[in-house]
């Protein structure tokens, strides 16, 4: 019995010493551990060198929305953040988890306001529709970016609206297109080629080729692509209506190029404009780019290439819109601006 007493005393002493070391450690900041345990590789590190998450400002990770530049990068940032947030809070809108990648270049021209042509007007109308339906859309300038986004969002990406060259480029690139060897690639059926004209694009052809106009109306036997259509209504309704009594006795002739007046192609012979002027007392104006050619009707006043706002202005002060046969399908669209 007597021999066991010193052993228990030693045990208590050892436990007290160990307990003391533990308490001492808990009271010290973590950066002072290395010297305590004989230095080590981290002894060169100073506290200031360490990243301290608590000190990172939230705004350094993401700037306030109001200060973001208006470009596609900022749009992506806002859209992705909203998507992650709604998924975390389990309160996404009905279509918010359906992502559409916008890779047809006019989509980027539209948001950056770098260009204003028919393709951009088509893109703007599409973006408005996606916004209204509550889809998440993310801009992607090329296939490399699309692949990265596809690796992140996968099944959430429902469609990619892209260039003809990028559909074919991805299809031919084993690292881009989904296949047995590349299961994390982009499925071919998610790639939609955006084409202003009538050709069919890519291996999936017509149904995967989007058109702004219904070219079947031209009656030339084109195999129909996927007719999407577009609207200029917001741009029209933003302008004041000009009462007919305040308009000029003016007819607007819709034509962009001098080549539209080549006799074989144009809808009206040159003397049509003279006769119509005499019969109805109207002046004819147009906004055609380039130098006038001998085919350009002398009765027609060319206002030249103009801004969209000037174009709408001349249209809204006209009594009638005259098509010249090319392009066949766009005239009805701009009748809206005349609001006849
Ligand atoms: C979601 O999109 C579908 C078409 O894909 C549409 O019919 C529906 O109205 C949209 N939902 C909302 C809330 O806009």
SSE topology:
Elements: H1 4-27, H2 33-36, H3 58-61, H4 72-89, E1 99-102, H5 105-112, H6 118-133, E2 136-139, H7 143-153, E3 157-162, H8 164-172, E4 191-194, E5 209-211, E6 226-227, H9 233-237, E7 250-254, H10 270-280, E8 283-286, E9 300-302, H11 308-316, E10 320-323, H12 331-338
Bound molecules: 2-acetamido-2-deoxy-beta-D-glucopyranose.
How would you characterize the overall build of this protein?
Keywords: Membrane, Transmembrane, Transmembrane helix. By secondary structure, the protein is of the alpha/beta class. It has 3 domains: 19-50, no CATH class; 65-231, no CATH class; 239-339. It contains 12 helices and 10 strands. The chain has helices spanning 4-27, 33-36, 58-61, 72-89, 105-112, 118-133, 143-153, 164-172, 233-237, 270-280, 308-316, 331-338; strands at residues 99-102, 136-139, 157-162, 191-194, 209-211, 226-227, 250-254, 283-286, 300-302, 320-323. The longest helix is centred in the first third of the chain and has 24 residues, at 4-27. Residues 30-42 have low confidence and may be disordered.
